[in-house]
């Protein structure tokens, strides 16, 4: 039975196995970003604070990119699909951050949710065909490849880091605070 907190986030299972625990924490972090970006219009999603150019809209699109990059390209060596494949990354290596200002809130949430759905399907495939120890197709310069376990831990870290940014941005926008 999944427990949902006051912000609509699924609590990670207290007694789950390793895969369920990792996936539970990743889903909790995903739901935290959903909470921090919920109900905001384009102006709010494009708000910056202090010296940073980071926006909540850019954060949504960046996390969509990261989900697809790790769970499609890195894990399986598959093309990322659009909009990623047609981007001139050499011209703008932070395209996802910059181009988010041109997207509606609905489009940003949709691309992020689509990326999460693809990530979940890729994880299910890897768990069914080798488990958490499944090696990614990605090979680092040192010859090693990360495991699915490593990728899941990295994604938890990526969300946790950026959810801290989302906390600051959301508070500056409308005073919304919370874990």
What report would you give on this structure?
This protein is mostly helical. The protein has one domain: Four Helix Bundle (Hemerythrin (Met), subunit A), CATH 1.20.120. Helix content is 56%, strand content 0%. Helix 1 packs parallel to helix 6, helix 3 runs parallel beside helix 5 and helix 3 runs antiparallel to helix 6. The longest helix is centred in the last third of the chain and has 27 residues. The model has no long low-confidence stretch (mean pLDDT 96). Pfam families: MST.
How far the N terminus sits from the C terminus, by CA atoms, comes to 23 Å
Low-pLDDT runs: none
The level of helicity is 55-70%
> Which outline best applies?
globular
User: What kind of oligomer do you see?
Assistant: single chain
Q: Can you tell me the CATH topology?
A: Four Helix Bundle (Hemerythrin (Met), subunit A)
Query: Count of DSSP helices?
Result: 6
Radius of gyration: 17 Å
Number of domains: 1
What's the topology here?
Layout: H1 18-37, H2 42-45, H3 56-76, H4 95-99, H5 105-128, H6 148-174
Helix pairs in contact: 1-6, 3-5, 3-6
Pfam families: MST
Protein name: DinB family protein
InterPro entries: DinB/YfiT-like (IPR034660), MST-like (IPR007061)
């Amino acid at each position: 039975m999944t427990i949902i907190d006051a912000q609509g986030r699924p609590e990670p299972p207290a007694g789950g196995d390793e895969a369920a625990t990792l996936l539970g924490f990743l889903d909790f972090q995903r739901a935290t970003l959903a909470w921090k970006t919920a109900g905001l219009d384009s102006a709010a999603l494009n708000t910056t604070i202090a010296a940073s150019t980071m926006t909540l809209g850019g954060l949504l699109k960046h996390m969509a990119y990261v989900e697809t990059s790790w769970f499609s390209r890195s894990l399986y060596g598959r093309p990322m699909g659009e909009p990623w494949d047609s981007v001139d990354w050499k011209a703008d290596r932070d395209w996802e951050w910059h181009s988010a200002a041109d997207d509606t809130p609905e489009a940003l949430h949709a691309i992020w949710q689509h990326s999460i759905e693809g990530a979940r399907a890729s994880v299910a495939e890897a768990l069914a065909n080798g488990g958490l120890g499944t090696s990614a197709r990605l090979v680092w310069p040192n010859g090693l490849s990360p495991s699915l376990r490593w990728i899941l831990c990295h994604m938890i870290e990526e969300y946790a880091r950026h959810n801290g940014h989302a906390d600051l941005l959301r508070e500056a926008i409308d005073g919304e605070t919370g874990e």
